[in-house]
Here is the input.
Amino acid sequence: MMTEALKALFALFETEEDDFALLVQRFGIDPATDLQNCDLTNVDFGSLAADTLNLTGSDIEGANLSKVRCKHILGAAGEVLKIPHHGTAFDQVGDARFLSRPLIDAVVLAVSRYQNPDWTIKAIVNSFNDSAAPILAFYDSSAEQDVLTKRLCSILNDLSGPLYVNPDRAKFVWFYSKAEKSRFELKASSLEQNFFDLLRSDRTSDDIGVYPYLSNREAVNQIKEGLEGSYDKMRGAFARKLVREMRGSERRGVVLFSGYPPVSRRLYQDIRSATNQPIKLIFLCSSKLEDEYKSQPVEWKRLVIPTYAVGQPQASNHDVERLGKRVEMASRGKISFGGEFQAHLQRWRGKPLVALKQEIIDRLRHVASALPMYEMNIDDVVL
Amino acid sequence: MASKKPKPIDLEQSAQPGCGDLVEVALFAPQGANEQDFLLGADVRFGTMLVSSADWSKSVEIGLSRAILSLDLSGCEIDVSAHRYGDKKPASAKTRLQHTQHTSTTSRVGAKLSIGATAKATHVAARAAASVRAGAAKDAKVSSTETQTTEMRDEPVVALSNSRWRFSAVAEAYMQSRYSGDETLCKMRVTAPKIRVEARLTFQPKDIAIIELEAAPALLDRFKKSPNQAAIAKVLISKHLKEINQTAYRAWSSSIVGWVSTLEGDLKDDD
Here is the structure.
């Protein structure tokens, strides 16, 4: 079968072009997804520009990443820090030596998007003791979604028991999607449409290393089956099937929706009225929805479930260290935390994480304001 | 009194080929199954795949340097106390004594040096076993010395945690023919009346090896010298393999599912 990829392969053999960034663009390769687990040995990435460059699992020995312009580089932490910036002859590193405003902006973005999965997980787990009310947490990146999903699944799955349901443990089913819904309206019909359309059409593999996998997939397929007709009909059918899959446990049921949009209040009411068993719903949503959540809180609470998101994360011992690494990575090793600044940041321990991030961002902006015009020739900056 | 014979379970194998030219898996129970346990075997074969341009002027032959077989189990579990195919002790290095003959008359000796190195040092420990054969004339003075060499052994099949097995090309750049099937993979304990074992053989884009490329010499020269083009070629090949994939796991994250074999069955009633 002559696929588009195969046509591209034979077109590649005829081109004289060797610029990796141009080849990526020309042959429709998505740096956010297609370069994972690849052999990229000795590749010169050139001035590849992308929002996300995901090199998770790839061999990048000898690769040159010094000129890439990407907001997020995933899976290359160890290698990125090897990019020459110390004691290398000027003519050998070229643009990599310049600390520019776009680079500062990328570092600021990396800091502002930092989240602490430990805190989020703890907040979700603690919410179990408080009530059976649905709970919402936001993730910022695809990688963070997977980390949160796997950690929650490992906590909620009883790995010590056999695959059949033990009556002493909560029945747990998880849904997973990588799809991103760009349209989001605070209307019950739109919420239901978004949710059911994704549920019916999504073919994302949910095998992200969570065990047991088969039994969950069977349960999810059972719930998805027969979602036909109007959205009103689907609402009733979904509630019935979800409740049926939750049976078999004397304790409450837990359902995790990772990557799915929040649901309408009336869908939640249908689920509640279909059973007396308490069912805890957990939603992990992209932080793109966080603005909607914050900007129209009254309307959100009137129409959308979950009503509550996990609270404001507090800075922990590890956050300063992790943020330091994130800054080094986003700046390609050119900006690092000094000892004095690190000690200064310890004051934010136990305070809102957002305040800690703001302090770092303020310091970065201060550095940026000192940059002459557009760029400066500099080895590195210690904050 | 004779002990009661365990009830048998009839198992049926079905397959979903993903990249049939590259891999093939068939699960089987060599001694059948019963309500207590059964031995699980997996016939695993590798091959090469040839893809050609529409006008047949260019072609690429590919193979695999590595793949992972993973089991998904329902109604049964691996007997952790039993041996698994590919179980390997952590210290696999072994020492041997090698006798080497040296001749004092170099002018009359025809020496032949053969070096066998692994094709891909990133996957397997670099190995260089050099042997010197002295074809000296009969009247040459020959002395004998003993040398000690350490040989690193690379295993083509290694049992991993979480019901997985890794298959690797050890002596060649890619895998060919049968890698598993003579020995049972593992022993299974039955935990429910309905059994289902799903084996998925997956590989990553970086495990794809380009074996041969046929095109105009000028194009080949340029391609061979360009790591950028070689990397893009492998990305495109992996995209092609995903596009032609017919398994239920077509949208699998970044892994490519080469083959899915399923073995399932129910406990028979007495009547």
Q: What stands out?
A: The radius of gyration of chain A is 24 Å. The first strand of chain A starts at residue 49 and ends at 54.
